[in-house]
Design goal:
2 copies of one chain form a homodimer.
Chain A (H helix, E strand, L loop, with lengths): L3 H12 L4 E2 L2 H5 L15 E3 L4 H14 L3 E4 L16 E4 L6 E5 L4 E4 L5 H9 L3 E2 L12 H7 L6 H4 L6 E8 L4 E5 L10 H5 L7 E9 L1 E2 L3 E9 L2 H13 L6 E6 H10 L10 E9 L1 H17 L4 E4 L3 H12 L1 H4 L6 E4 L2 E2 L5 H15 L3 E6 L4 E8 L6 H18 L18 H4 L2 H14 L35
Chain lengths: 481, 481
């Protein structure tokens, strides 16, 4: 088929010449997301500015059976926004506007490329904010947050992204532009919004999102408690939840990370601590004062070494800065690392910590941890040095063992980051063939030709049938130079 | 095809002879749900006791292309649990056990026939409860609540049913038994739980549900404010929400219902009031006291005639009894009524109230109202007398006008009750053909032969394709007697 120049011309006619990236240098910047291993250069990058352009691009790609890979800010860590098989990457960054701030109905309609934090900044003057705040909120896009159904430190109290999405405008794999949901939360028919959130671009691409806004709480109180052991910190978490208090965040930072953060950026964490627990309360001032009054003695009962309360916004920001930049500072402590996104029911936290220690001992590799303790969502980081023979292999083994341990304890193959390329082949560990076949059928219903983000989310498992793994890329890399 | 006796024998072999209702008298008790008009006698009623039996029954029905209509307590008001075209009704009432109360992980696994209120009663001794409490909670089943994605007075603060369902075991229209979701809220893959909740039995039937339990709030405070006009009450609602307070309930009861309730059961509502606002606050005692301290002056500023605070649990129960039995007491005030389940974005409440008055004047019929004001979810009741020529017709016209008015104001064809038979033909008022076609495709994906609850949820619209409207019933009523 004489695809090349006609196809390129058609795409340029849709989005304009500046909306198509075909040079090698340009495409190279879209080679990877934040996963350690996966890479792949898209054959073309297309940057639409409207929903209609997006739909037209998808329809044009469908005609040629060319893979379409949606991408927000590329901050995902599952390889979901990469093009390992080539194809057209749909960069949604230019669609980054707030279309409507509807304060009376406590919602906003935004474009998918909008940076998460920008929305809260815009809503703040009206006294509102957007609750889902993944640690990457300064750079990640709302479209990407929706696609991975991102969590974050505050989802213990406020829920994950899907709990804050009221509606979406999407382009399906057929190139149809449809609205799912809407401003009114009670809506008839099937809740397709819930399917699309977490769909990782395998069902289509999001072109607008209606999100719920929450009233900025009257007060916020951030406490830091340090302990000599991780066990004491974990048990404090159980005791707080058991007392019926739901803090807005409950984060544990282990000894390794406390040291790394202090040496890297200096957040004022107590240096010798075996574990630090970051507790945040929000709500009416009377309520959080009362909660803090309950929490302090609970920490003391669990042998807290020190309990500190942030006295002002600057101190609070500093305590969080340590947590939010944990992943960034680790570079100075290790050559390489593998990040696992593990989750277990909260009651199994002590058990998974023990198993993790055993895996660490067996594979002779350090496993460091910062995690959303209130949710049972761990982020173990397996540290290795790829210059030492065998360490990479042992790191991969440890990673696999960790995943299986979580599943045995009733957890899931992924916590808040999604499946992408990274966990696709692990899905059969958690799901029966009938479950996978079912998901595959659903996928086909949105994307009959299997052009949307192929190879992601579902495994190359017989139960998933055909149609989701494209053949060799139609446009071998470099075809456009 | 020689179906009859072999089919009956097979079903009896699956669920036992006592699990199949074939007599006319027996089947007649399943003729209707709580909708005013729709009726239809199922050809057989089957009462499974296990998920496996349910799956086997569905597979057996599928072989004969016989319609399957799931039913919980039959308290729905949309005709969703009726068999207007005949077929096999699956009564889930015998599956009414709590399978697990997992307090450590704040969840419970229950069978679909469990009565909503029973779960909160069982969890209460551990300090937990199940938040979704439709007004019918004393009789409605959790399976039915899930199927219609029921709302209720407290969903302003706590969200609707879907926000409390973590996972489900379901039998699809293919007769496959699959688990969707699970105890861990962060789960990979497509969120099929969200699709099934609100699926109204058109995708399959629910055989187990994992629901989230919440900690019983430390305190509850119920206030009643009366006003001389409905406008004053509505504006008070806006002012409370605008002040950043989210009460657990905000219910408006209009003049007609205040009188009906007082004459019927005597809940102590001020008789002469033009509208009564029921406000409930829950949470830590300090918090609700502070909130009440804000709310009382707001009510006064909006010309409240009287503000009353329930002094104890008995007074609180009495205030709620009036609201919860509003639908029951109306019988003494009118011969007939049509209940609409309308919803608009909250900011449009004053506008829809004005339009409702205009419709009432035009059709010369009284429209009475109790509603979840905080959500913009109205329950207008159009009163008529079918012995007066033309009143039924005018009531239907008023009903239709009301629906269109809600849609024009950005609302939805249904609030918290679902679509069922009642609103199926209204879906094209809200959804474009592409949206409907999309839903139909999704439905087919779960139920390829269109046997599940045919004729419900989607309209007989060309966009919905074929396969969802069965031909004449295979078993004409009475075939089994």
């Amino acid at each position: 088929m004489p695809l090349t120049s006609e196809f390129l011309r058609d795409l340029e006619a849709i989005v304009g010449a500046r909306g198509v990236v075909s040079s090698v240098e340009g495409r190279l910047t879209y080679e990877a997301d934040m996963h350690t291993f996966y890479k792949g250069i898209p054959d073309l990058v297309v940057l639409p500015e409207t929903a209609e352009q997006t739909a037209t691009v998808v329809r044009r790609c469908r005609r040629e059976h060319v893979a379409v890979i949606p991408r927000g800010s590329g901050t995902g860590i599952i390889g979901g926004a990469t093009a390992p098989l080539g194809g057209v990457m749909l960069g949604m960054n230019r669609m980054n506007r707030i279309l409507e701030l509807d304060i009376a109905n406590r919602c906003a309609t935004v474009q998918p490329g909008l940076i998460n934090l920008w929305l809260s900044q815009a809503a703040r003057e009206h006294g509102y904010y957007f609750a889902p705040d993944p640690s990457s909120q300064m750079v990640s896009s709302i479209g990407g947050n929706c696609s991975t159904n991102a969590g974050g430190p505050h989802c213990l109290k406020y829920g994950i992204t899907v709990n804050h999405v009221l509606g979406m405008q999407v382009v399906t794999g057929e190139g149809e532009l449809v609205w799912l949901g809407g401003k009114v939360p009670e809506r008839p028919g099937y809740d397709l919004t819930g399917v699309f959130v977490g769909g990782e671009g395998t069902l289509g691409v999001v072109t607008a999102v209606i999100v719920r806004l929450l009233h900025v709480p009257e007060g916020v109180k951030t406490l830091l408690a340090s302990f000599s052991t991780l066990d004491d910190a974990s048990e404090t978490v159980s005791a707080i939840i058991g007392a019926g208090i739901v803090p807005s965040a409950l984060e544990i930072i282990d000894e390794f990370f406390v040291r790394a953060i202090e040496e890297g950026i200096g957040a004022g964490y107590p240096k010798g601590a075996g574990a630090v627990l970051l507790i945040e309360l929000d709500g009416p001032v009377e309520e959080i004062e009362a909660q803090a009054g309950h929490i302090v003695p609970i920490c003391r009962d669990h042998a807290a070494l020190e309990i500190r309360v942030a006295r002002d916004e600057a101190e609070r920001a500093l305590l969080w800065k340590g947590r939010k930049e944990a992943a960034g500072v680790v570079g100075r402590m290790t050559s390489n690392w593998l990040l696992q996104d593990a989750v277990v029911p909260r009651s199994r936290l002590p058990e998974i910590m023990r198993r993790m220690q055993a895996i660490s001992d067996r594979q002779r590799l350090r496993i460091a941890n910062v995690f959303h303790a209130g949710d049972g969502n761990l982020h173990p980081m397996i540290l290795y040095d790829d210059r030492v023979a065998g360490e990479l292999e042992r790191a991969k083994l440890a990673n696999e063992e960790l995943l299986r341990a979580c599943l045995e304890l009733g957890g899931s193959v992924t916590g808040e980051h999604g499946v992408g390329l990274d966990k696709a082949e692990s899905m059969p560990l958690q799901f029966a063939p009938a479950d996978l076949a079912f998901m595959a059928r659903l996928r086909r219903c949105f994307d009959p030709d299997g052009i949307m983000n192929p190879g992601k989310l579902l495994p190359s498992h017989p139960a998933c049938g055909e149609g989701f793994r494209p053949g060799p890329p139609r446009f071998p890399s470099g075809a456009w130079v």
